[in-house]
Amino acid sequence: MSEPTDAAADTIPAPRSASLPLPPATVPAGPEDGDVTDAMEEAYWSVHDGAAASATVRQVLARLPRITALIGRLAWQADRASTLTAVVCQLASAAMAAFGLIASVGVLQHLFAQGPTPDRVRAAIPQILLVAGFLAARALLEAAVAVAQARVTPKIRTALECEFLSLTAHVRLEAVEDADWHDEVHRANDRGLFYARMIVGQVVSLASAALGLIGTAGVLSILHPALLPLLLLSVLPVGAAAVHSARARFHSFKRWNALQRRVRVFSWLLLDVDAAAELRSDTAQDALLDEHRRLTVRIAEEDTRLGVNSALINLAGRAVGGVGTGITYTALAAMLIAGWLPLAAGAGAVLAIQSGRSSLTQLIEFAHLVYEHALWVDDLLAVQERSRRLLPRTAAVRAPEKVKEITVQDVHFTYPGKDTPALNGVSFTLRAGETVAFVGLNGSGKSTCAKVLAGLYEPQRGSVSWDGTDVREMDAKSVHRQVACVLQDPVRFPFSALSNITASTGTLTEAEPERAMAAARAAGADGVIAALPVQWKTLLSKRFKGGQQLSGGQWAKIAVARGLYKAAPLLLLDEPTASMDPPSEHAVYEAVLRGRLRTDQITVLISHRLASVVDCDRILVFDSGRIVESGSHDELMATGGDYAAMFTLQASGYRPGAAATATAAEEAGR
Questions:
Q1: How far apart are CA 455 and CA 483, in angstroms?
Q2: Is 508 helix (H, G, I), strand (E, B) or coil?
Q3: What are the boundaries of the region Disordered (predicted)?
Q4: Residues near 159 by Cβ (< 8 Å), separated by ≥ 6?
């Protein structure tokens, strides 16, 4: 056996300096003791879970006015008439509730007056009718609030979602490729849009509870100013219990969420189609099920713990609230005995205090919800604002529909967070009717250079010019329209076969039939489409009834057809045939490199299969962000440089015994 070459030896990891001990006989699949959630990294979409439980009452109350103003502004922008209706009707509803309490006191005054019972009841009838009228009016007003809310809430969601998707779909490519940006956008999409819809109703309920509490306080102050301290004495213990109960729920939800994420790891493995064969081959299902069962038991224990704690907290709150209520009623009795209050006013005070306790409990519950959910909405709005700053440039100058020459001059580009440049002083010229190949090792800068050519990245130094005009002076979207990109892993649009081709021109519903047929034939996609149930109209997704799923090679043909259909002056092919069979690959390269649909098109081919670039007019060899060789296949083979070495190595793999012979010859020449 021949010894490995130096290049091959470089890929072999060096021996470790420290010896590895034997593994233990048993090992847990996950945390066994303590809190199993400690081992879970916080998910990007859970960063605000439990935030309300960590905030003080002062923090929550201090932030509510700003949150209310924010939701009000969004509602006003979405539907002014419905927003105004909701505000006016909500205020009027609170007034009806207060007037109803006052009218109820009037009923009690008649019922507790001197005289025969029938006379007292008859005297109370007008007040009873008044109470009924206030209650009916309040019901109508609350219905009007609900109708207005039903009108404005979907509009807020629609406006936010449309703007969010429009902005994030158009930001520059380097923003999309940033991991932090990815997390922020998906968090805003998953949680921000969801809670933006919910928070409107929560703010309405919060306002209703607050206005109800204010109305109760107003009624008590009318009955007797000394009743206001009694209201505080009665409601504060209930409020404290509600705060503790809400915090316990928020804390427990975060723990429960982490446990569920851990359980889903096992659920996903058990249900995943890609893991199914190996699980059955290894008979690992029972082991996964055992771990799943252990964790679900922990979740059940967590649910029990929450329920017990919540019950104890509520019991304590009711006990303290009962003491406060007892003191309140004792004070009321003393006021009645001392003659400070008539009996009817005392009874009305009891009704008002009970109403106040209910309003305060609702106020606390919704305040916590609004506080936490507003954090998600803030995320959404922050992503939208950041997206506006990351949109591609707009300009009056448009990219030409035809280009004679593209000049790349001393281009430098370094990815964010990297020290080594991906492109380090790259210069070359592309001419219409020419086919140019980019070759080199992984990470040499080929694909980065293609993205710079496509206008997806902007050079940090240097320039890219179309017929003498720097692309940075052109409208970015117009440049994108004049570049067709065919990638190794193309997008598999869940639309019709024809829509998958016409998508390159920005439409899913309109096509030029002859142009589409020519592109499909050139890419070899015509045979794929002809075999589909309804051919061009067949939906290429199993998510739809009658939809079809294509193989990787078939999708590649559709992607090539999509690129050819665009008929752009610059065609970029980045490993487009990696998943095709040899005859299909040969047919595509015949169409692209020899029988192109447009002879004035510049074609750039990126490939590791060097046999496919032999017929290109020029081959640019990249290494460490630089172009180290340039020329035709014959010229580069004659120089015996990097390209010749790579081509010879690949070619030797197709000749039995040639690799060993080449290695032996190399060894003999040393």
A1: 8
A2: coil
A3: 1-34
A4: 74, 77, 78
Which residues lie across from 275 on neighbouring strands?
none
Q: Which residues contact 638 (CB under 8 A, 6 or more apart)?
A: 644
Q: Which residues touch 374 (CB under 8 Å, ≥6 apart)?
A: 63, 67, 70, 71, 195, 199
Q: Quick check: 523 and 573 in contact, CB under 8 A?
A: no
Model confidence band, residue 621 (pLDDT cutoffs 50, 70, 90): very high
Spatial separation of the C-alpha atoms in residues 367 and 202, rounded to whole Å: 8
Question: 655, 661 in Cβ contact below 8 A?
Answer: no
Q: What is the DSSP letter of 190?
A: I
Question: What pLDDT does residue 669 have?
Answer: 42
Q: Is residue 251 very low, low, confident or very high in pLDDT (cuts 50, 70, 90)?
A: low
C-alpha torsion sign, points 300, 303, 309, 310: negative
| Sign of CA pseudo-dihedral 56, 61, 66, 67 | positive
Burial letters 575-608, b for 16+ CB under 10 A, else e: bbbbbbeeebbebbbebbbeebbeeebbbbbbbe
Structure tokens at 658: 């040639």
pLDDT band at 650 (very low <50, low <70, confident <90, very high): confident
Q: Tell me, what DSSP letter sits at residue 578?
A: T
Q: 160: part of which helix (H) or strand (E)?
A: helix 117-170
DSSP annotation string for 343-380: HHHHHHHHHHHHHHHHHHHHHHHHHHHHHHHHHHHHHH
The conformation of residue 8, written as its DSSP 8-state character, comes to H
Whole-number Å distance between alpha carbons of 572 and 574: 6
Per the structure block, which two tokens stand in for 44?
Answer: 């990007």
| First-to-last C-alpha distance (Å) of the chain | 18
- Per-residue pLDDT at 665: 46
Average pLDDT, the chain: 79
Main-chain phi, psi angles of 596, to 5 degrees: -60, 150
Q: Is the pLDDT of residue 380 over 50?
A: yes
Q: Are 109 and 342 in contact (CB under 8 A)?
A: yes
**Tens digits of residue pLDDT in 43-53:** 555 566 656 66
pLDDT score, position 5:
43
Angstrom distance (rounded) from CA 207 to CA 469 = 59
Q: Which residues contact 188 (CB under 8 A, 6 or more apart)?
A: 164, 376, 379, 380, 382, 383, 384
Tokens describing residue 98: 């207060």
Nearest to 294 by CA among 256, 262, 258: 262
Contact 211, 91 (CB under 8 A): yes
Joined tokens for residue 66: 């700003």
**Res. 474 pLDDT band, cuts 50 70 90:** very high
- Counted residue by residue, the chain has a size of 670
Q: Which two tokens stand for residue 121?
A: 């009841």
Residue 210 has pLDDT above 90, yes or no: no
Question: Is a pLDDT exceeding 90 seen at residue 230?
Answer: no
Q: For 588-657, give the DSSP string.
A: HHIIIIIS-S-TT-EEEEE-S-GGGGTTSSEEEEEETTEEEEEE-HHHHHHHTSHHHHHHHHHHHTTSTT
DSSP 8-state secondary structure symbol assigned to residue 442: T
Residues with Cβ within 8 Å of residue 212, at least 6 apart in sequence: 94, 97, 355, 356, 358, 359, 362
3-state secondary structure 459-504: CCEEEEEECCEEHHHECHHHHHHCEEEECCCCCCCCCEHHHHHHHH
Long-range contacts of 56-60 (CB under 8 A, 24+ apart): 57/243, 59/371, 60/367, 60/368, 60/371
